[in-house]
Amino acid sequence: MTVATSRHLTPASPEPAGVDNRLVVGGAALTWRSLPTPTLPDPVAVLAHSAVHALTAARQHAVHGTELLLSTASRVDAAMRTELLAAGFTVSVLDDDGVHPSAPARPRAAEPGRLWLLTSGSTGRPKRVGHTLDTLTTVRADQPDRTWLCPYAPGTYAWWQVVTLSLTQPGQHLVVVEPDELDDWPTVAATQGVDAASGTPTFWRRTLYRDAEALARVPLRQITLGGEPVDQAILDQLREVFPTARISWIYASSEVGASIVVHDGRAGFPVDWLDRETPGRPTLSVRDDELVVTSPYHGAGLAGPIRTGDRVQVLDGRVLITGRLDSDEINVGGSKVSAGLVRGVLTGHPAVAWARVTGRRAPVLGRMVVAEVVLAAADPSGADTGVPDEAALVRWCADRLPEHAVPRRIRVLTDIPVKETLKSDV
């Protein structure tokens, strides 16, 4: 996937280049051109009732340049709604009955072409980050025809990445999965001819855990992962199911855009990418174990080096992104433990489908490492992977980790937890 800049669609632009691409939403076949054309306030914060309403708002922005913040209603609580109204947005619910606006007390002039994203809120309350279609559209080179699956919540950075691809390029069709279809998405995808799909590691792990055979029936040629740390275990599991597909992982955020793209099937990126300056491409560096990115795809007002809040470790010539700085490091009796690396050891066990690693208060040491796991379903080939108990998993970790990093408690869950963002908040 080539990362490059795109042209900006100004107010009253003609329809975007992908206007006749096929869209499948809730089983209904549409195109960008056939979407409804409501009149939206400007500036507007659209709370989309469903995927088709979110796509409608995206197309309206592409054509008219309306200043737009797009989200689902569940991501905008009462405090955020008040904050948006105070910032001069008309907060509008968009549903089958039309546009239902709540006007701000002090209206303001719109900023033409501005798109606003809400961050995931992983480090606190969600923040607004400004973009345009130009900075959100990162794939500009000609692409082979694809039918993409889009499982993301409307208005998130990952959602815009898939949507802008379909908006701006002919032959990039879109099958949108609503939340109530997530558990059965492989059936929908196989029926609709999906051959490219983007999702978080949690999204892929849940699918493999729930029905790997159904997933294998989807004719995927492109698999993309992002939004969470990507470890070797999930890459290897997907490669086993799809030996000929291109499997890519992407590091991207609302603040710095799509900054790292890796296609070699390995977790992390080569250490020689650090501090490499190439015109038009992000520059990656590490400061105090934190990933720092200088990106041409940054949000408004975020030029220059941006400290991402993500912790990295260099192992065997690869730079591994292990998790958030505020949650990845566990101090056990003065020794630092990376929760992400312990998680990687646990998910490397053939019978573990998912793991979460945290710290818990403990006498003397201050903190100890604990974990939750979901065990994989039986191997359909009949191979005996063994169903480990807590003691067996502790021994597995003890053989691969220093003593202070071994989990002291491991709890088994019956399903992989997931948030609206398709993350497990690890």
Physical arrangement of strands within the biggest beta sheet = 2-1-10-9-11-12-13-14
CATH architecture tag of the domain at 325-413: 2-Layer Sandwich
* CATH topology grouping of the domain at 325-413: GMP Synthetase, Chain A, domain 3
CATH superfamily of the domain at 325-413: ANL, C-terminal domain
Give the overall shape, derived from the CA principal axes: globular
Largest sheet: 8 strands, mixed
Strand content: 25-35%
The mean pLDDT is 91
Secondary structure: number of strands: 24
Class from secondary-structure proportions: alpha/beta
User: What is the helix fraction of residues, given as a range?
Assistant: 10-25%
The gyration radius over C-alpha positions equals: 22 Å
Give the C-level CATH assignment of the domain at 325-413.
Alpha Beta
Distance between the termini: 27 Å
Poorly predicted parts: 1-11, 380-384
* Helix run count: 10
Family: Belongs to the ATP-dependent AMP-binding enzyme family.
Pfam family, one: AMP-binding_C
Domain AMP-binding enzyme C-terminal: 345-420
Keywords: Ligase
Summarize the structure.
By secondary structure, the chain is an alpha/beta fold. The chain has a domain at 325-413: 2-Layer Sandwich (GMP Synthetase, Chain A, domain 3), CATH 3.30.300. The chain has 10 helices and 24 strands.
What does this structure look like?
The chain has 426 residues and is an alpha/beta fold. The protein has a domain at 325-413: GMP Synthetase, Chain A, domain 3. The chain has helices spanning 51-64, 78-86, 133-136, 157-168, 185-192, 201-216, 232-241, 325-328, 339-347, 390-398; strands at 22-25, 28-31, 44-48, 68-72, 90-95, 98-102, 115-118, 128-131, 146-150, 172-176, 196-199, 222-226, 246-253, 257-262, 269-270, 283-287, 290-294, 306-315, 318-324, 329-332, 335-338, 352-362, 366-375, 409-413. It has an eight-stranded mixed sheet with strand order 2-1-10-9-11-12-13-14, with helices on both faces. A six-stranded mixed sheet has the order 6-5-3-4-7-8. It is globular and about 60 Å long. The relative contact order is 0.10. Residues 1-11 and 380-384 have low confidence and may be disordered.
